[in-house]
Specification:
By secondary structure, the chain is an alpha+beta fold. It is built from 16 helices and 15 strands. Helix content is about 45%, strand content about 10%. The strands form six sheets. Strands 5-4-14-11 form a four-stranded antiparallel β-sheet. Strands 6-8-7 form a three-stranded antiparallel β-sheet, with helices on one face.
């Protein structure tokens, strides 16, 4: 530890002192469940995981419903998802929109959560939410002078909460007073709008995943037609731009093979004749590539969006050979990251199969970590390290990290929590910024659909998507090719030694 720079030690000291009062864990877990997760985070699972009981399932569902109620009220503007800075803790007035650079991605994650919610509960309310969100997506892809380019966000130029953000987004532009370097006024019918440019693969990956899940689970003709129109518009722009994400203002990046395959897999699902041949060529390239990784001491954002693209591919694929290749990649991603206790990577893994793989660690991560999620609002700020009883520290990538996964309540709060490594000690300032809670909402409904989290009203009857999805040989036999893993349901005593 002597090689750690003084500035890094200072940052750690600031974090450990805390910038706000302790964050209440609000967990309903038993001491035994908490101890199991702690041991798992140390790569030393001992004993068994006890499934959530009915009271715990009810408490978890109430939290999910509370976030679901808050999203359209506080975190959706023009159909698009955002975080919000409030004037006070009562959330009576929004003073500035936040996290708009990722709004396209989180809007897609919200669509995915709604689609899984509908798949489980079949509520008409959910379809109306999907329609409202698609209104925002339609506006988003038509906002610039180049239809099909996906801005990060679009909103009214005269909205003061938005103006405060776009005026400095990318740094203030001295040539265009009132605009940041990545903010642009709309043209023609969109002249009262401002859209946020840049070249973000993450926004594309997140939105494509959301559209894919709506296409998969919602059979209402108008909604499916709207999804198809969005997909064709997106692909048309990418084809015109030679498969580069280009905002028309000097910002561009390439589409990775994995993301390109996910986009074209969705394209082939909505228009087989036009897109399937190109999808096959892209898919052949992806299957031969190494799987994504989930580094322990680094930002997990790339892993989260790689998992989103793999979710798209696994959800829509109908080729046994390709499907097994995608399932192998997401399995390796999860197994590589398992002792980080990351619910998003766990749910991407279990949802790759119609029959969820027997995996105690994935079960414990989804049930246990999601149950530890606090009630809304989800305020930005540092975690509470007061109960960690001293940390084993390591130095990596120029920063200090906890050697092992921290409990959720001890982690600094992010807009989407699962992009942050659970061992991160990077300071997060306490602010009156509330995040939408998609990290709980979307992950919960995906876990419900997979049967990993039971229905609180009937915890015995499975809610497996396998009861509803058409079966095929690829998915029925998929678990036979997986490496051996621990049976689900916490019935077997296991010991995984420390590395």
């Amino acid at each position: 530890m002597s090689g750690i720079r003084p500035s890094v030690w200072f940052a750690l000291a600031v974090y450990l002192l805390g910038m706000a009062g302790p964050v209440a864990a609000q967990s309903t877990l038993t001491e035994k469940q908490i101890r199991f997760l702690e041991n798992a985070g140390h790569n030393h699972m001992v004993g068994r995981w006890n499934d959530l009981d009915t009271n715990q399932l009810v408490a978890l569902r109430k939290k999910v419903d509370a976030y679901a109620a808050d999203i359209p009220k506080y975190h959706q503007v023009g159909g698009l998802i955002l975080s919000a800075r409030f004037a006070d803790t009562n959330r009576t007035r929004v003073v500035r929109y936040e996290e708009l650079q990722d709004s396209g991605a989180w809007t897609g994650f919200y669509l995915a959560g709604l689609a899984y919610w509908f798949a489980v509960d079949r509520r008409g309310e959910t379809l109306e939410r999907i329609r409202t969100t698609l209104d925002g997506v339609d506006r988003l892809i038509q906002a610039s002078a180049r239809p099909g380019y996906l801005p990060a966000f679009v909103g009214r130029a005269d909205d003061p909460a938005y103006r405060d953000f776009y005026a400095v987004h990318g740094g203030a532009d001295p040539k265009r007073p009132g605009f940041g370097k990545l903010a642009f006024a709309g043209d023609g019918a969109n002249r009262d709008l401002v859209w946020l440019g840049g070249a973000s693969r993450d926004n594309t990956a997140g939105l494509v995943m959301g559209l894919a899940m709506v296409h998969k689970f919602v059979r209402e003709n108008r909604i499916r037609s709207r999804v198809s129109n969005v997909v064709e518009t997106l692909i048309g722009r990418l084809e015109a731009d030679r498969w580069r994400i280009n905002d028309g203002h000097g910002h561009e990046t390439f589409v990775t093979p994995l993301l390109g395959a996910a986009i074209l897999r969705l394209g082939a699902s909505v228009n087989t004749n036009r897109h399937f041949r190109e999808y096959e060529a892209r898919a052949a390239e992806v299957v031969d590539l190494p799987p994504p990784v989930a580094p322990r001491y680094a930002d997990l954002r790339p892993s989260v969006f790689s998992a989103a693209s793999l979710l798209t591919l696994n959800a829509l694929e109908n080729s046994k050979k390709r499907g097994l290749g995608y399932q192998d990649k997401v399995t390796r991603l999860w197994r590589d990251s398992g002792n980080q206790l990351n619910p998003w990577l766990a749910v991407a893994f279990v949802n790759a199969f119609d029959h969820a793989p027997s995996e105690t660690l994935a079960l414990a991560t989804l049930q246990g970590v999601l149950s530890s999620f606090p009630q809304p609002p989800r305020w930005a700020g540092p975690g509470d390290l007061s109960g960690t009883n001293g940390l084993d520290l390591v130095s990596a990538n120029g920063m200090v990290w906890s050697k092992h996964a921290l409990p959720l309540a001890s982690q600094g709060v992010q807009a989407f929590q699962w992009t942050r490594a659970s061992s991160s000690l990077a300071p997060v300032p306490a602010e009156l910024v509330a995040h939408p809670g998609l990290d709980l909402f979307t992950t919960y409904w995906m876990a419900r659909d997979a049967g990993i989290i039971p229905d609180e009203a009937d915890p015995i009857t499975p809610t497996r998507s396998a009861l509803r999805r058409p079966q095929d040989a690829r998915r029925t036999n998929a678990t036979l090719v997986l490496p051996p893993s621990t049976p689900i349901g916490g019935k077997t005593n296991i010991v995984i030694p420390r590395k």
